Amino acid sequence: TVKEPTLGLADLPLRPELQGAEPYGAPQLDVAIRLNVNENPYPAPAAMSAELGEAAAAEAAHLNRYPDREARALRADLANYLNRTNPGIVPLNADNIWVANGSNEVMTHLLQAFGGPGRSLLLFPPTYSMYPEYARNTHTGVVTAPRAADFSIDLEAARQAIAAEQPAVVMIASPNNPTGTATDPEVLAALVEAAPGMVIVDEAYAEFARQGTPSALELLADHPRLVVTRTMSKAFGFAGGRLGYLAASPAVVDACRIVRLPYHLSALSQLAARVALRHTDALLEKVDALRSERDRLTDWLRGRGYEVAESDANFVYFGTFDDRHAVFSGLLERGVLIRETGPDRWLRVSAGTAEEMAGFRQAMDSVARDLG
Ligand code: PMP
Q1: Parallel, antiparallel, or unpaired for β 97-100 and 244-247?
Q2: How many Cβ atoms from other residues are within 10 Å of residue 325's Cβ?
Q3: Nearest Cα residue to 48 out of 283, 269, 267
Q4: 351 Cα to the center of ligand 1, angstroms
Q5: Is the distance from CB of 200 to CB of 107 less than 8 angstroms?
Q6: Ligand 1: centre distance to CA 313 (Å)
Q7: Where is 291: in which H helix or E strand?
Q8: Is the ipTM of this complex over 0.95?
Q9: pLDDT at 1
Q10: Structural domains in the chain?
Q11: Which Gene3D superfamilies does the record cross-reference, listed alphabetically (predicted)?
Q12: Which of 40, 233, 246 is the best mutation target for the ligand 1 pocket, counting ligand atoms within 8 Å of the beta carbon and taking the most?
């Protein structure tokens, strides 16, 4: 190996916008109760693991060949999944779907295709902290518009920002991370009307939405510059499988196909995702359980006098604390890992199993007693 002990990152000719930057990521700590990255706490059903093992063993014999570059079979399966779970939409097919290694990569493809030097991305903070990084990595500028006190999007402020900045891309997480806030489809439609370019609605948490919260998928048929991104990381409990996707007009998919690396999605990833999709019903049963835990958690926190943002996701955002770090650290000392993110008086906690939630509640009361 090449070793030069005196040479550090600062000595390398790094691009100026990367100088001083830290790699993104929440701490991966080995504690008993991990509620910090909105993972699904339930392991895969045994039938799914068994099927995946067999399928992977069979596929292993063909790994000398490159995978299907277009991932056609998986894209058709995902279209079927969306059609089945969103009966109100104009049916989608494989041409409407794009896939990559997590929705993070899908959104990077979108920024590579539609962002770039001299163009800007409009964001609504507090929101998912990776968005500015996609922009940085693709030389896209970032502009922002504020949210209201309840974290909903302020449509008038958004319209003004769009008029003033003419962003090439508008990106809205709905439900939003870290706040859990869903955005009304009417607001989304108004933003697509106002925006001169692409509007991306990141629905990473859509399956956890409360009854009656509509998906932006319903708007796709009338809005060719709208893109809805999804992921199997959360509802499907497939974060380790790294499979994200989008639904949009076929032209948007063609744009992503231009910028993707050849064979970006491995044969094993495609296969594993297809196996997981065959177990959709068993996996989505756990979504119901997580929704109930989220609602119980909200009620419990409110009962203790905390402020809790309305959540349609598998986590809740709560506060407010004069010193949130003291609360975070107190919980960590008691074996419970949550997340310090967004406005500095708030904390985010993921919905876990009933046992994990009981552990969180107990630790939270103990921390509150300690901090007085
Ligand atoms: N969007 C949002 C709003 C998220 O919170 C996350 C994960 N934390 C992602 C996208 C990315 O998920 P993945 O790359 O695992 O699909």
Answers
A1: antiparallel
A2: 11
A3: 283
A4: 16
A5: yes
A6: 12
A7: helix 280-303
A8: yes
A9: 64
A10: 9-45+282-371 (3.90.1150.10), 58-278 (3.40.640.10)
A11: Aspartate Aminotransferase, domain 1 (3.90.1150.10), Type I PLP-dependent aspartate aminotransferase-like (Major domain) (3.40.640.10)
A12: 233
Q: Is the CB of 102 under 6 A from ligand 1?
A: yes
Beta bridge partners of 122: 143, 170
Nearest atom in ligand 1 to 107's CA = 10
Q: How far apart are CA 138 and CA 189, in angstroms?
A: 26
103 dihedral zone (left: phi>0; alpha: psi -120 to 50; beta) = alpha
- Provide the pLDDT for residue 26: 81
How many residues make up the chain in this entry?
A: 372
Which ligand 1 atom sits closest to the C-alpha of 243? 16
What pLDDT sits at residue 212?
Answer: 84
Burial profile 217-239: b = 16 or more Cβ within 10 angstroms, e = fewer: bbbbeebebbbbbbbbbbbbbbb
**DSSP string across 230-290:** EESSSTTS-GGG--EEEE--HHHHHHHHHHSPTT-S-HHHHHHHHHHHHTHHHHHHHHHHH
Q: Which residues contact 72 (CB under 8 A, 6 or more apart)?
A: 94
Q: Which of 34, 35, 103, 238 to mutate to test the pocket of ligand 1 (most atoms within 8 A of CB)?
A: 103
Q: What percent of the chain has pLDDT over 90?
A: 92
Q: Which two tokens stand for residue 118?
A: 């001299």
Is residue 339 within 8 Å of residue 36, measured between CB atoms?
Answer: yes
DSSP 294-336: HHHHHHHHHHTT-EE---SSSEEEEE--S-HHHHHHHHHHTTE
Nearest atom, ligand 1, residue 233 CA:
15
Instruction: Give, for ligand 1, the residue of 177, 183, 350 to mutate: max count of ligand atoms closer than 8 Å to Cβ.
Output: 177
Residue numbers in the chain where pLDDT is lower than 50: none
177 lines ligand 1 (CB under 6 A): yes
Please state, in angstroms and rounded to a whole number, the distance separating the CA atoms of residues 350 and 337: 10
Averaged pLDDT of the chain: 96
In Å, the largest CA–CA distance within the chain is 63
Structure token pair of residue 7:
């040479």
For a ligand 1 pocket test, name from 28, 104, 314 the mutation site with the most ligand atoms within 8 angstroms of its C-beta.
104
Q: Is 191 within 8 Å of 163 (Cβ atoms)?
A: no
